[in-house]
């Protein structure tokens, strides 16, 4: 049983125009087995929250805390966070020229677990996971994300999620750019990780369609750097019908 | 008193410097009675003009006499010395102003080679050997100045026999000059003339060791001829001279050097490599140099390629303080091809000034240069290349791609692409990129559990992968390991 606890998190970035506060007091708690969805308008700070959880150096936490089972996550380097059991499926996965997927996956798995996976079982595990996510076998010999289509990149993020077996995963718009079949296949991958590893998930999305496959326990509406409202799956339906107007109005009135 | 003597003895044992030796003897007259022969430096059998530091006509004559060479070679050496004295230091490239020509030994017998024991090696080199996991036996060979010899003697002899059966000649250059003088009269200095440049002239004057290879018509040498099969210790010399002749329709891959750092107490390495590629023959020449960072590595390499022939240079520069090296291909026959793949690593206090030179002298010739460099910890990597297309070399094509990767903000890279085109009907392509290891790449890999230096090493390895894949596997693996070791020191 693991818990990721975010308390009153304030985050700023340095821009050419000076320091800009993007997260303005976010509080969220995600435990093993739970599925949380975050929905919110463009630019509201969802990716900022995701990157901050993973430890991107560009984001400065000015106050608040993030802990994983009581351990101070903000004190950890990004690699230590991965080793502690956090995973971020990125909105824009990065290309690493000259490094094959096979090499990358094995190196990362070794780094996360602190020991090399058994070669025999590992090879099979990778192959099976790729098959289930309908990733062609020759991707194993391609360079990490190089020349992958948008949808292929997302699938490969979920491939990593399945192989690395994190305690808590943050999925940043993993559904964007997926075709209808891919959306289902990817969702199944996430659900498998839930069932098999009792993973906790923070799912950032713009569309309710994925929520038909990955059924959230909680939905958070994210507006202007903080959670404006929390609710169950029904909140997603309301957003689908009415958009963010109600929440945006509240922000500009404040 | 005895303590002082012991100390003086030790000083003598550890120096070759005549000035130091004289002073010790002056201060401790009783030592003179012990007999000088113990210290090697005064052994009359070995010593001669060439045992001293600095180079002059006596040194050159003495080297030639010791090798019992034909008169014409002595003459050529003398000519080399003349050009060396006369030619100015090149000032267009790396900074060479600190080379002290008078303080270099130009002829070192194999018996008084380099560092003699493990303990004599500088600590960083010892550490690297240990981290590379180089086995004890092999270390000893490295220490003694001989490249690794993984294969057993039996395998070695078998390979030699196979080669002999095919008529392949492969031996050290000194022996080859004696046994096959006809090749030398025809080809020695034909690809790189004695006065080509200051350092080629110096090499011609004092050369010693190196390899000679002749591959007869139509013969394909299946195994790479490499450092493992070196015949004697002379080959690891400072002024080695290599001559390779690939007769028509033949193929050979020659590999020189090794990825493990080679400690050299002498600060100048100046080799000359001449390659003759005849009609439809193909030669691949792979070099990995990892000299210790006190060494000036100033090497001239050139191939002439006949009709339909192919020359491939694969050139890796890891070590040295300064390297200036631009493997050249003169495409003299129609449809001849030249290719250079080079990779350079410039770390702290290193300047790698490398590139290639392609000279198109016949129609329908093609060449390509791919250069990759990685600079870190304040090092500097320069690409310097020349593409020349002579008049009448119609329908020739060249492409140059040079990519530089900067690992931090204090390192430097620069490119000096020169072109000299005297023919209209040519196709040229030039691409140059400079990239920094991006924050996003680092973050992506770190968020997958890799420590910063591991992430950096993975990015660097990926960057040079197109060249590493051309290396024999054991070299590629060791190169990867070396990159990891280097990155350990360059972040955090
Ligand atoms: N480097 C930067 N310079 C300036 N502004 C930035 C920078 N990075 C992020 N921002 C701003 O921070 C705000 C939050 O960005 P973020 O990417 O977190 O939004 P998001 O909620 O993920 O949006 P989307 O739904 O479009 O993915 C945006 O207004 C964005 O422009
Ligand atoms: Mg976003």
Automatic annotation (TrEMBL), chain A:
InterPro entries: AAA+_ATPase, ABC_transporter-like_ATP-bd, FeS-cluster_ATPase_SufC, P-loop_NTPase. The keyword Flavoprotein does not apply. One of its GO terms (molecular function) is ATP hydrolysis activity. Keywords: ATP-binding, Nucleotide-binding. It comes from the Bacteria. The keyword ATP-binding applies. Residues 4-249 form the ABC transporter domain. Belongs to the ABC transporter superfamily. Ycf16 family. This is Fe-S cluster assembly ATPase SufC. The lineage of its organism: Bacteria, Bacillati, Actinomycetota, Actinomycetes, Micrococcales. The gene is sufC.
From TrEMBL, chain B:
Belongs to the iron-sulfur cluster assembly SufBD family. This is Fe-S cluster assembly protein SufB. One of its GO terms (biological process) is iron-sulfur cluster assembly. Pfam families: SUFBD_core, SufBD_N. Residues 1-22 are annotated as: Disordered. Residues 1-12 have a biased composition (Basic and acidic residues). Residues 229-463 form the SUF system FeS cluster assembly SufBD core domain. PANTHER family: FES CLUSTER ASSEMBLY PROTEIN SUF (PTHR30508), UPF0051 PROTEIN ABCI8, CHLOROPLASTIC-RELATED (PTHR30508:SF1). Residues 163-226 form the SUF system FeS cluster assembly SufBD N-terminal domain.
């Amino acid at each position: 049983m693991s818990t990721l606890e975010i308390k009153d998190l304030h985050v700023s970035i340095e821009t050419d125009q000076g320091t800009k506060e993007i997260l303005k007091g976010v509080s969220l708690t995600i435990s093993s087995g739970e599925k949380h969805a975050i929905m919110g308008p463009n630019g509201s700070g969802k990716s900022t929250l995701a990157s901050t959880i993973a430890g991107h150096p560009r984001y400065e936490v000015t106050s608040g805390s993030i802990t994983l089972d009581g351990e101070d996550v903000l004190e950890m380097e990004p690699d230590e966070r991965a080793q502690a059991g956090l995973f971020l499926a990125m909105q824009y996965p990065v290309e690493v020229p000259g490094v094959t997927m096979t090499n990358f996956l094995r190196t990362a798995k070794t780094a996360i677990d602190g020991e090399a996976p058994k070669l025999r079982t590992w090879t099979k595990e990778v192959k099976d996971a790729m098959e289930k996510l309908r990733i062609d076998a020759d991707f194993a010999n391609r360079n990490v994300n190089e020349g992958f289509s948008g949808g292929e990149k997302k699938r490969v993020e979920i491939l990593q999620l399945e192989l690395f077996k994190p305690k808590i995963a943050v999925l940043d718009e993993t559904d964007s750019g997926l075709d209808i079949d891919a959306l289902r296949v990817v969702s199944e991958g996430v659900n498998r990780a839930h069932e098999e590893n009792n993973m906790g998930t923070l799912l950032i999305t713009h569309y309710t369609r994925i929520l038909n496959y990955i059924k959230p326990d909680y939905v958070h509406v994210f507006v202007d750097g903080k959670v404006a409202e929390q609710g169950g799956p029904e909140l997603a339906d309301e957003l689908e019908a009415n958009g963010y107007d109600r929440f945006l109005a509240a922000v500009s009135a404040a | 008193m005895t303590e002082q003597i012991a100390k003086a003895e030790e000083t003598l044992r550890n120096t070759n410097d005549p000035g130091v030796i004289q002073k010790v003897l002056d201060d401790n007259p009783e030592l003179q009675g012990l007999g000088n022969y113990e210290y090697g430096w005064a052994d009359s059998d070995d010593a001669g003009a060439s045992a001293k530091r600095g180079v002059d006509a006596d040194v050159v004559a003495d080297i030639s006499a010791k090798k019992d060479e034909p008169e014409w070679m002595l003459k050529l050496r003398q000519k080399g010395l003349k050009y060396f004295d006369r030619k100015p230091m090149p000032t267009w490239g790396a900074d060479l102003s600190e080379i002290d020509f008078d303080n270099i030994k130009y002829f070192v017998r194999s018996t008084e080679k380099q560092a003699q024991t493990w303990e004599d090696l500088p600590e960083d080199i010892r550490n690297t050997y240990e981290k590379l996991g180089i086995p004890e036996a092999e270390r000893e060979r490295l220490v003694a100045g001989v490249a690794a010899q993984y294969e057993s003697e039996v395998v070695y002899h078998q390979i030699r026999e196979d080669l002999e059966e095919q008529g392949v000649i492969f031996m050290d250059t000194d022996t080859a000059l004696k046994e096959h003088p006809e090749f030398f009269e025809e080809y020695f200095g034909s690809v790189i003339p004695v006065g080509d440049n200051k350092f080629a002239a110096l090499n011609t004057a004092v050369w010693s060791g190196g390899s000679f290879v002749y591959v007869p018509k139509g013969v394909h040498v299946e195994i790479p001829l490499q450092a493992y099969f070196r015949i004697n210790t002379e080959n690891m010399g400072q002024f080695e001279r290599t001559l390779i002749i690939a007769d028509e329709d033949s193929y050979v891959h020659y590999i020189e050097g090794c990825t493990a750092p080679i400690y050299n107490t002498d600060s100048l390495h100046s080799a000359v490599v001449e390659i003759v590629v005849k009609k439809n023959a193909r030669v691949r020449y792979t070099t990995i140099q990892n000299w210790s960072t006190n060494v000036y590595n100033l090497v001239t390499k050139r191939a002439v390629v006949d009709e339909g022939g192919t020359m491939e240079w694969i050139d890796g520069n890891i070590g040295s303080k300064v390297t200036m090296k631009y493997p050249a291909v003169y495409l003299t026959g129609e449809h001849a091809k030249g290719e250079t793949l080079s990779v350079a690593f410039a770390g702290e206090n290193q300047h790698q000034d490398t590139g290639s030179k392609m000279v198109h002298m016949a129609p329908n010739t093609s060449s390509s240069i791919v250069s990759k460099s990685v600079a870190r910890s304040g090092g500097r990597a320069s690409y310097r290349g020349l593409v020349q297309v002579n008049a009448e070399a119609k329908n020739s094509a060249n492409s140059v791609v040079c990519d530089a990767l900067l690992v931090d903000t204090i390192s430097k890279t620069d490119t000096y692409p020169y072109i000299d085109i005297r023919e209209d009907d040519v196709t040229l392509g030039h691409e140059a990129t400079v990239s920094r290891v991006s924050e996003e790449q680092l973050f992506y890999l770190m968020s997958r559990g890799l420590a910063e230096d591991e992430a950096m090493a993975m990015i660097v390895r990926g960057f040079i992968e197109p060249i590493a894949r051309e290396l024999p596997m054991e070299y590629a693996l060791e190169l990867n390991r070396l990159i990891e070791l280097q990155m350990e020191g360059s972040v955090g």
